[in-house]
Amino acid sequence: MGKERGHKVIVSNRKARHDYSILDTYEAGLVLVGTEVKSLREGKASLADAFATVDDGEVWLRNVHIPEYVQGTWTNHMPRRTRKMLLHKGEIEKLIGKTKESGLSLVPLSMYFKDGKVKVELALAKGKKAWDKRQDLAKRDADREVRKAMGRALKGRY
């Protein structure tokens, strides 16, 4: 059996892009136990309320729900346990500075397998206000209308 290659998305946090302005992204590994990986291979996880914190020079992923492995025994994991993230020291120091001084948040955008290992796309993000969200929705609707009009014009149906 060879190692699996490629990029397979397990779960993505679409609501994060709606609620936050993404400033920068990082790829981080996760410290997991065996039953967590087996559960992830079945495509089961939720990033709905997930966030990351920096404590004592280490980055921790909190509130990620990875359900118990169905065929697991007494060695099964806790579904919402805090998981350690693996980043380079320079990246961690940069994150410490940005989250402390400017009040930015660390939000997971997606979880995926990369060359057989579980990775998390972590975003340095700033929370949007309600008017920002409305403005984004209005811009998206306007872009959609422009695309429709261009399509009609190209087909000769003004």
How does this structure look, described?
- It is globular, with a radius of gyration of 20 Å.
- The protein folds into 2 domains: 7-127, Small Protein B, Chain: A (Beta Barrel); 129-158.
- The mean pLDDT is 82.
- The longest helix is centred in the last third of the chain and has 26 residues, at 130-155.
- It has helices at 14-19, 34-41, 89-102, 130-155; strands at 7-12, 20-30, 51-55, 58-62, 83-86, 105-114, 117-127.
- A hairpin with a 2-residue loop joins strand 6 (105-114) and strand 7 (117-127).
- The protein has a 7-stranded antiparallel β-sheet with strand order 1-6-7-2-5-4-3.
- With 158 residues, the protein is α+β, with helices and mostly antiparallel strands.
- The chain is 34% helix and 33% strand.
The average pLDDT score comes to 82
Number of strands: 7
What structural class results from the helix and strand content?
A: alpha+beta
Please report the number of helical segments.
4
Low-confidence stretches: none
**What is the beta-strand fraction?**
25-35%
Instruction: Give the CA-based shape.
Output: globular
How would you characterize the largest beta sheet? 7 strands, antiparallel
Strand order of the largest sheet: 1-6-7-2-5-4-3
Provide the helix percentage: 25-40%
Radius of gyration, CA atoms, in whole angstroms: 20 Å
For the record, the CATH class of the largest domain is Mainly Beta
